[in-house]
Write a structure and sequence with these properties.
Oligomer: single chain
Largest sheet: 4 strands, antiparallel
Shape: globular
CATH superfamily: Nucleoside diphosphate kinase-like domain
CATH class: Alpha Beta
CATH architecture: 2-Layer Sandwich
Number of helices: 7
Helix content: 40-55%
CATH topology: Alpha-Beta Plaits
Distance between the termini: 19 Å
Order of helices and strands: EHHEHHEHHEH
Radius of gyration: 14 Å
Number of strands: 4
Length: 140
């Protein structure tokens, strides 16, 4: 397996509920290397770019409104098979379907407030990392 990078985010509900330490602890315990991390408010234009594939869908405005509603923790994780492993750690998008032991299974409340985000593939990871981080902000 190759070492790869993925974009990970603790969404506004996770930050508001003081789950940052819990989630970062799980990330570190899994063996990921955090090569970029920042607490930030996402500007609307950035949120629209991030969710660009959903423009025109009925839930687009709700996604943008939620992700800009409070601070998030944006991260770049590095590790073996990082994209798939982070998605496995997060669990199913809908917390009702997420297994116990996953972040969403243990910590999320609803599909709309599901605590964490992760890139779904290599191209998405590259695009999302580029939206939220400059290369100079990442540790080699």
């Amino acid at each position: 397996m190759a070492t790869e990078r993925t974009y990970a985010m603790i969404k506004p509900d996770g930050v508001q509920r003081n789950l940052v330490g819990e989630i970062v602890s799980r990330i570190e315990a899994k063996g990921f290397r955090i090569v970029g991390m920042k607490l930030m408010h996402i500007p609307r234009a950035t949120a629209e770019r991030h969710y660009g594939e959903h423009v025109g869908k009925p839930f687009f405005e709700g996604l943008v409104a939620f992700i800009t509603s409070g601070p998030v923790v944006a991260m770049v994780l590095e590790g073996e098979n990082a994209i798939a492993e982070w998605r496995k750690m997060m669990g199913a998008t809908n917390p009702k379907d997420a297994a116990p032991g996953t972040i969403r299974g243990d910590l999320a409340s609803t599909i709309d407030h599901n605590v964490a985000h992760g890139s779904d593939g290599a191209a998405t990871a590259e695009r999302e990392i580029g939206i939220f981080f400059e290369a100079s902000e990442l540790i080699d």
